[in-house]
Amino acid sequence: METNTKATDDGRKIVLSGIRATGNLHLGNYYGALSKFVRMQDDYDCRYFVADLHALTTHPDPKMLHENVKDILAEYLAAGLDPEKNTIYVQSDVPEISEMYLLMNMHVGIGELMRTASFKDKARKALGIGTPAEGEDEEGIERQIIGNQTNQRVNAGLLTYPTLMAVDILIHHADFVPVGKDQEQHLELTRRFARRFNSFYKTQYFGEPVNFNFGGSAVKVPGLDGSGKMGKSEGNCIYLIDDEKTLRKKVMRAVTDEGPKVPNQEVSEPIRNLFTLMELVSTPDTLEHFKNAYADCSIRYGDLKKQLAEDILKTTLPIRERILDIRNNDEYISKVVRQGAEKAREAAAKTLRDVREIMGIKKF
Asked: Can you give the pTM of this predicted structure?
């Protein structure tokens, strides 16, 4: 069977991205991905999904899982993703993904899954195993995970997470998959699984998707805690749904330093992070004003934070208003996901039929 990796009928390349249904989207999601998704929706065949199956690895409360899916859908739409231009769907609404996940697992080794950095990290945390000691080899960590004698357990879904991610991508024959550094290993596994499938069945059915930086350098949106990037699990976020009072309070509590002691002193990491946020939301002259104030030791961090909060609100408040409107419109959300599922299933069903036939699973 010939390869099915090609642009869509209108010549556009396929872009795929998903986000786990584990909470609201934040400023990092918006500037790192969502705002770019909006700019590219006319030039690519874009397919965006809410990964509720992936979220099951953390055993979320069923009611909360449903609400999280609804939140992310509303936030996708409020940020500017047009359901007429993009395929927007919920992962579990495409049952072909689950079946292909089973089939693909037949070509995936336990060892290579256990060696993924994300699995080892999450498994250690789940089992209460401390960070690796200096000089401790990888096999030692794996033995601790396998030989764990506590009442805690690591679910198989967490182990096979890379397989499900690979299926999400390959079932659509995606050309580009925008991923962060923490997901690059999973994308490389996707390419490996595609090559293995092709080699085993002597076909060129699957192509190899590549990372996508939207034609420019990646944006790292820092958190408010003075170091690292903004992330849900870090507790350093500004959420798109935050109201004005909450957002101002968060920004005013952002970590700073003692202030510059000498002119042209090197900018510390916490202040550099605030300047980075200001680069995203403020005018160039506003940023320049505060940088100059830092350089001549006249900066007042309270003024900096007040201005930063004001400028962030100019971006987030209109989005928040749209989120609330969309979230209260169940009929519209249902229409969007039904339409998205129909489009996603059309492509997924074709791939699954081909994969079943290639593997010898045929109807009599």
From this structure: 0.87
Q: Which mean pLDDT values do the consecutive 10-residue runs of the chain (364 residues) have? A: 54 92 90 89 95 91 94 96 97 98 96 83 68 55 56 79 96 92 86 97 96 73 88 84 97 94 94 96 97 96 97 97 97 97 98 97 89
The pLDDT, as a whole number, for residue 308 is 97
d(CA 172, CA 63): 29
Out of 13, 85, 122, 291, pick the active-site residue: 122
User: Annotated catalytic, 122?
Assistant: yes
Residue 227 in domain: no
Which helix (H) or strand (E) segment is 89 a member of? strand 87-90
CA nearest neighbour of 5 among 162, 163, 186, 194? 194
pLDDT for 118: 79
List of residues 6+ apart from 153 with CB closer than 8 A: 126, 127
- Residue 5: per-residue pLDDT: 45
Provide the CATH number for the domain around residue 18.
3.40.50.620
Question: Do residue 72 and residue 154 come from a single domain?
Answer: yes
Residue 291: active-site member: no
Q: Kindly name the residue from 232, 291, 306, 350 that is annotated as catalytic.
A: 232
- Mapped onto helix, strand or coil, the DSSP state of residue 15 is strand
Write out the two tokens for 215. 């034609």
232 is catalytic: yes
The runs of H, that is alpha helices, within the chain are 27-29, 35-40, 52-55, 62-78, 95-105, 110-114, 117-127, 138-146, 156-159, 161-170, 184-200, 244-252, 269-281, 284-295, 301-327, 330-358
pLDDT at 148: 57
Pick the catalytic residue from 13, 220, 229, 343: 229
Tokens matching residue 313: 């609100």
Domain shared by 24 and 118, yes or no:
yes
Q: Quick one: 99 and 196 in the same domain?
A: yes
